[in-house]
Amino acid sequence: MTGGGDLRTEGLGRRFGGLVAVEDVSVTFAAGGVSCVIGPNGAGKSTLLNMICGAIAPSSGRILFDGKPINGLSRHAIARAGIARKFQVPSVFGSLTVAENLAVAGGGDTEEVMALTGLSGERDTRADVLAHGKKQWLEIAMGLIRKPRLLLLDEPTAGLSPEETQAVAELLLSLRGACTVVVIDHDMHFVRALSARTVVMHQGRLVAEGDFASIERDPMVRDIYLGRA
Amino acid sequence: MTQRDKTWLFITLAIMMALTLYPAFGSFSGISGLRDILLFALFAVSLDLFWGRTGILSFGHATFFGAGAYGMAVMTIHLAPGAAWSSLAGLAFGVGLAGVIALAVGYFVIFGGVRGAYFTIVTLALTLIAQQIAIGWSSVTGGDAGLIGVPPLTLGIPITGKLFYYVVVGLLFAVVLALWAGLRGQRGLVLRAIEDDERKAQTLGYNTPLHLLAVFVLSGLIAGLAGALYVTGTGFVAPDMIALLLSTEVIMWVAVGGRGSLIGAVVGTMIVWRLQQEVSTLSASAWPLFIGAFFLAMVFFFPDGLPAAAQKLWARGKGMKEGRTA
Fold first, then answer.
1. Residue B229 sits in which domain range?
2. Is A103 close to B186, i.e. CB distance below 8 A?
3. A1 in a domain, yes or no?
4. Which residues form the signal peptide (chain B) (predicted)?
5. Is A216 inside a domain boundary?
6. Which of A79, A87, A93 sits opposite B205 (nearest CB)?
């Protein structure tokens, strides 16, 4: 890793016609830290990630990466700035083998990353025949091999076993200091295992942030998850 | 080098060897006929480069072949008739014209995000527009009648007869081998990745429209080269060299040979031309009807091309034989 990058959003908003998906979100993800973004379905978490990695343009506000605005940059330019993203649905190149996927993703030591993510035995397997869990690992590996300064992960543990979920948590925690990690996930066991700074979104707005223990005890957050807010 | 690469090289070199030996046995008309088919094969390779490696179907490739053909004809007949360098200027003008059209159209279409069936429709319209220009701008293009009197290729010495045939064979295989070698490594992987999931490729830092545009322009340049050389053999250019039927036929040649292998486009072109000769002896007007029906049959029964279908049949037969032995 090349050292984490500092990500800050200022008054970030996105509207789809009359629907407000994200509204006035100002948040900082400090360099080298691991953070979680949680919230119920439709809270605006994925839209926030889409804006950060350039998939959609913000309707308002700014996104600053290491102090430089990245609004309006193309996806590939944002990726080249050092931001890697894992999608909610595993997104790998099905017609390529595991090793070829990693070669396309770029640069790093393929064997080392495969060993780190448990893919060494699948080196020459086409990605489209991998089990769902292996695809998740492959996409995480494709992010890691690029040595990003910011790694955005959208539900990296969906479909993984409890043991694999724990392994992902340990892997992400091992990146602390070397890479800024922002994770979106619904799995509270996973978020608890990360025990990281947690940002809560609800109806497009940022409603709470702090360490996970305090967030877990927050009555408003409990109400949101129980559907009372 | 993988086993697959070795097989590909063996087949390619075997075909090249057979084509090199052909003039020793073929008649003059047979040699010139095969030369023209090989120039169409070069045109098919150009489409296979784009369609086979990016997964995006261009229905307008006759535009580039026609641009090359008209560029060569206009330069050698109107702009520099009789000059010693007119063939070279015609080649440069024809290939350049095809490249400029590919660059201009490709830039707006590819960077505009047009993909899939929409790309196919836009390029289909491109051929229609190009053909209308070729017919309508009669003072330059000769209109419906085209232009007659394109001189033979001259590059210091006249390139005619068997020499022209060998130049075409050499050029075809130089292009096929160069593309194969150039697309084996990281470049080829990136194109396959873009075909699989362009959005994902972008999030890995690849400027995918730029990659696609580069391949489209290179493809247009090769098609233009095929067109420019073709008219020096036939001696004339006509609007059917920039027509929708030719755009359809080249898709057929690539589909029959199996897209993506480059050498498959050469094999496919030769198979379909042989079929065309057979069908045309029965009825000259039956060919367009036949090619339509054949195309449908290919899509439904052999979507990966005839060589791939033959390979599957062979593997199945081998499996059955081994099953009986066991």
1. 3-243
2. yes
3. no
4. none
5. yes
6. A79
| Residue B36 belongs to some domain of the structure | yes
Is A128 in contact with A95 (CB distance < 8 Å)? yes
Partner residue opposite A80 with nearest CB, options B201, B205, B208 = B205
Nearest 5°: CA angle at B165, between B159 and B166?
90
Give domain status of residue A112, yes or no.
no
- How large is the ipTM? 0.89
Tell me whether residues A104 and B193 touch, CB distance under 8 A.
yes
Q: Residue A164 is part of a domain; what is its CATH number? A: 3.40.50.300
The total of structural domains in chain A comes to: 1
Q: Are A63 and A7 in contact (CB under 8 A)?
A: yes
Q: Which amino acid is at A138?
A: L
Is residue B278 situated within a structural domain?
A: no
Q: Indicate the burial class of B9 (C-beta count within 10 angstroms; 0-12, 13-18, 19 or more).
A: middle
Model confidence pLDDT, tens digit, residues A59-99 = 999 999 999 999 889 999 999 999 999 988 889 999 999 99
B266 in a structural domain: no
Number of domains in chain B: 1
State residue B270 phi and psi, 5-degree precision. -65, -40
Number of Cβ atoms within 10 Å of the Cβ of B4 = 9
Q: Which domain holds residue A60?
A: 7-82+148-226
Nearest Cβ partner for B189 among A55, A103, A146: A103
Q: Are B204 and A142 in contact (CB < 8 Å)?
A: yes
Taking only the tens place, the pLDDT of each residue in B223-282 is: 999 999 999 999 999 999 999 989 999 999 999 999 999 999 999 999 999 988 888 888
Q: Is B192 on the interface with A (CB under 8 A)?
A: yes
- With respect to residue B238, please indicate whether it lies within any of the assigned structural domains: yes
